[in-house]
């Protein structure tokens, strides 16, 4: 089976084994949180970092992932809050179309701010409620807490899968 680390782009693998590995990892997670990282699946970032940097750094890797992704999501939250719907939809870097955004708006309207935490803890919906939260005037403090909590659950789960299924993933 192919290694998790080999599924990451070569340039990212090279950076994660450099002396600046944690700085690079932080920057990668800021981009991932802001929905700007399209070169690597987010589900492989923590396991790949554990392979390349070393699993003895599990806690710092998860911490960097949570802080970086939360910062990235918060920046996107602020863009949504102050830029608005039309601004985001007109940006080429924002790859969510109107119909998908409306669906996530509906989720936020139905379940409220707790859906930010829940969506950040699940595959395929990570970060998708960031923009509706910004549109809905959710409190920035509440957003950061819910975003970080959901991200902690998600990244810790990925780290646990790596640690407990490491023979398969490495």
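Q: What amino acid sequence fits the structure above?
A:
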């Amino acid at each position: 089976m192919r290694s998790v680390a080999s599924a990451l782009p070569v340039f990212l693998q090279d950076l994660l084994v450099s002396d600046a590995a944690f700085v690079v990892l932080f920057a990668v997670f800021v981009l991932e949180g802001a929905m700007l990282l399209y070169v690597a699946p987010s589900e492989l970032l923590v396991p790949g970092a554990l392979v390349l940097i070393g699993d003895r750094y599990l806690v710092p890797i998860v911490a960097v992932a949570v802080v970086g992704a939360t910062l990235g999501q918060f920046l996107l939250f602020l863009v949504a809050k102050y830029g608005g719907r039309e601004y985001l939809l007109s940006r080429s870097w924002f790859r969510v179309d109107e119909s998908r955004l409306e669906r996530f708006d509906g989720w936020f309207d139905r379940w409220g701010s707790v859906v930010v935490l829940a969506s950040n803890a699940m595959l395929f919906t990570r970060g998708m409620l960031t923009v509706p939260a910004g549109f809905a005037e959710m409190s920035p403090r509440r957003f950061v807490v819910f975003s970080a909590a959901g991200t902690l659950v998600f990244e810790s789960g990925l780290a646990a899968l790596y640690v407990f299924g490491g023979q398969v993933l490495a």
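Q: And what stands out in the fold?
A: The chain has one domain: 5-169.
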